[in-house]
Structures are given as C-alpha cells and as structure tokens.
Design brief:
The chain is an alpha+beta fold. It contains two helices and five strands; from the N terminus they run βββααββ. About 10% of the residues have low confidence.
Length: about 90
C-alpha cells in the first residue's frame, strides 16, 4: 500500500517495503502527481516489479566512468537516471 503525505511545502509518497519498513519518495509539488506515483508503486508491487529507489540506483557521477557512452534522462518526476548507451555507428564515406 502507498499513500501521500504533506511534507514541508510539497508532498511525499510513503509505502511499505516487503520487509515491513517504510520507504518514501519526496519532492512532489503537486498532490495529483504524488497520487499518480503512489498508484504506480502499488501497481508495481502487485506485479512484483517494484524496485526500491534507495537501493536500485547508480549515483549520477558513476556515469562518467562509462567513457562518455552514457547519457542521462530525466523523468517527469525530476528523477535523473542513466539511459542505455547508444551504439556508435561509423560514418559511411
């Protein structure tokens, strides 16, 4: 189960992890966006595809170790993640 709470001047989504502890995602400025994220989390948990963001990510700085082959993407929640590396294609002359 996931729910939305007022947090400072915005909102946060709280959810229960399989081990019984609480997880949260903060930084939502609009309640409707937070509610949408809470629904996504519940859906992912039901399907067994939910990954706790606190343990599943790579720090942004580690992307530099990929030799410039990676690029960053930002989703609609403002979360930054590494995008898959694009294959290099040789120019045809």
């Amino acid at each position: 189960m996931a729910w939305v709470e007022k947090h400072g001047s915005g909102f946060r989504v709280r959810y229960r992890l399989p081990d019984g502890t609480l997880g949260s995602e903060t930084g939502f400025t609009e309640r409707s966006v937070a509610v949408g994220r809470a629904r996504d989390i519940e859906s992912d948990q039901r399907r067994g595809t939910f990954v706790d963001p606190s343990v599943g990510g790579m720090p942004l700085g580690e992307g530099a170790d990929l030799g410039g082959r990676a690029r960053c993407e930002c989703d609609n929640l403002g979360e930054v993640r590494l995008a898959p590396a694009q294959p290099r294609v040789a120019a045809v002359r």
